Amino acid sequence: MKKHTKWLTLGTILLASMTGLAACSNNKQSSMPNKHVHLSQNYSVSSKATKAGNDSTLKIANISKGPVTQPAAPTLETTQEGNNMYKPGGFGIMFNQNKDYHIINGGLANLKLNRANNTATVTLRKNAKWSNGMKVTAKDVEYPYEIIANKHSKSNQFSTDMNDIKGMAAYHNGKAKKISGITFPDGPKGRKTVIHFNHLMPALKYNGNSTMWNGVEPYEYLKNVPINKLASSSKVRKHPIFVGPYKLNKQVQGNMTSWVPNKYYYGKKPQVKHIDIQVESPANIAEAMKHKKYDFAFGSPVYQYPRMKKLSDYTEVGLPKLGYNVFGFNVGKTDKNGNAVMNSHAKMANRSLRRAMMYALNLNLVAKKYGSGLTYRANTLIPPAYRDFHSSYSVNPGFPHNMNKAKQLLKNAGYKKRNGSKFVSQPNGKKLVVRYESPTGSSQDDTLDNYFVQQWRRLGIDAKFTEGKPIDQNSLIATLLRHKQTSVDVYRIYFGMNPEPTPTGFFSRQSSFNLSHFVTKKNTKLLNEMNDSASFSKAHRAKVFKEWQKYMNKEAVYVPEFYTPDWTAVNHRVKGFSMSPADNNLWSNLSLTSSKIK
């Protein structure tokens, strides 16, 4: 009770502060971001690991606003929180990578690209096995494509880029039973899989690209489960198998997973004998760390940084996130074929309305006051973590706060106050009510959402929460994934991008994650040019990326909120912790110096 009251009080203080912030939000702000902290990517205590330490349990928090309900199958993944629950098992990942996410040899499989033949050859290790002892086969490399692209699949991972694989479009449309462009030189139980493309994309050189899946699924284990029923199958819900250094020992669905070493793992044997991953509320993580409940956490919230930084037995480690929270404006629907269709008569179809709403928000000041030194206002949909492709603030400032400009945009577009109303109506004279929604979280998250609504109302827009307040994350995602929904006009949700920056997975015509249903000829053209033959030149590719960022800011159907690091506090009994993209053996390198958290 005392803890609840404390956080409720904090929320009240923040709300009062945000009211003051709103009062000074009329002025034009700098186009540059606020200053922010840079963290080390690694931590390792100097003392030696001990047998007692390694025989104990490494305890990890998975920060989530609610239960994690997705199955343990990467092809059916929908959230980062779901991915985090199963990380010690490797989650099917095939390829190792360097610090720039470039695929290198040495993982579960190696990759060879042939531009002359437009092929990618995946060769599995000879000793590659699943955690139940079954051999990893060439068919396991192909099977994810069958799951993702199946017409009746529950997967949301399909990207239009995958249609570059020969035969993929026919399979995806239900006109073929197999994908003709994926072959097995040594047979489906062999080690080689050859993927034939219409043309080879530069994105294929990087892990996590949206054209070639970077993981395996156990075909022999899953083959008797219909693909349309796979997401609810006990084989991915209760008894999943893995290829990583650990295997699942037990789990409490949605809340906890427990791991032990996988004796069939091909690589360096893990040193820690037990790992527990527990779902923890973002509001409670600092208090939990203070009481030595966890060694480190996945998804630590920015607002807890000041409290966790004070913990003497922990050190903060971080890496620039590849994702961000995004404001999305609903401008259409998804048709029966899974294609986004824009509606020119949709409430949020007016570009000036969208842009005005973004200029009304003082994100620079919000980040400075409440970002704990870690957060800064985002300027484009390609984060600076992609060093070669991010468009600078000086070239593409995004939406620095300018309430006067916001009001002028509305006025010029015909949004006016009529008949004594304190809110503007639509250009056609009809009433305008903008319904906003966001996942419920900490008191600070909710306070920020209230600030956004407040600013839009100060702009003259009758904005309100769809449900009167932020809602459960899973409920919001379910609503936004519907083919057609009109209950949410504007939403704020996290987009976690792939290590390879091509954004087709969120913004293409056929992407399930194109939650706003945005599709234009120019958007499609620029997305395609990111991976045409000319883009094997990095300079040309960067130019296309920067043109796309400028275009997306102009349209403002999707607008990023803040850039933040992926960070955690690491307990001082932990050795070998790293968040570097180049650390391909994290789970095998981890060790512990004592049996209890220090």
Give a brief description.
The chain is α+β, with helices and mostly antiparallel strands. The chain is built from 18 helices and 28 strands.
Task: List key phrases describing it.
598 residues; SBP_5; Dipeptide-binding Protein, domain 1; alpha+beta; globular; 28 strands; D-Maltodextrin-Binding Protein, domain 2; 5-stranded mixed β-sheet; disordered N terminus; 3 domains; Oligopeptide ABC transporter substrate-binding protein; Peptide/Ni-bd
Question: What does this molecule look like?
Answer:
This protein is of the alpha+beta class and 598 residues long. It folds into three domains: 2-30 and 322-563, Dipeptide-binding Protein, domain 3 (Roll); 42-65 and 245-320 and 567-592, Periplasmic binding protein-like II (D-Maltodextrin-Binding Protein, domain 2, 3-Layer(aba) Sandwich); 91-231, Dipeptide-binding Protein, domain 1. The longest helix is centred in the N-terminal third of the chain and has 22 residues, at 2-23. A hairpin with a 4-residue loop joins β5 (109-114) and β6 (119-124). Helices cover 26% and strands 19% of the residues. It has a five-stranded mixed sheet with strand order 9-10-11-2-12.
Break the fold down into its secondary structure elements and pairings.
Blueprint (H helix, E strand, L loop, with lengths): L1 H22 L18 E2 L7 H4 L2 E7 L16 H6 L10 E2 L5 E2 L4 E6 L4 E6 L13 H12 L18 H5 L9 E2 L8 E5 L22 H4 L11 H4 L8 E7 L3 E6 L12 E7 L4 H6 L5 E3 L6 H5 L4 E7 L3 E6 L2 E3 L5 E3 L8 H9 L3 H8 L5 E2 L25 H10 L3 E2 L6 E2 L7 E5 L5 H17 L2 E4 L7 H8 L9 E6 L8 H4 L13 H9 L8 H18 L2 E3 L1 E2 L1 E7 L2 E2 L1 E2 L7 H4 L1 E2 L6
Parallel strand pairs: 2-11, 2-12, 20-21, 20-22
Antiparallel strand pairs: 1-27, 3-4, 5-6, 6-8, 7-8, 9-10, 10-11, 13-25, 14-22, 14-23, 15-16, 17-24, 18-19, 26-28
Helix pairs in contact: 1-13, 10-12, 16-17
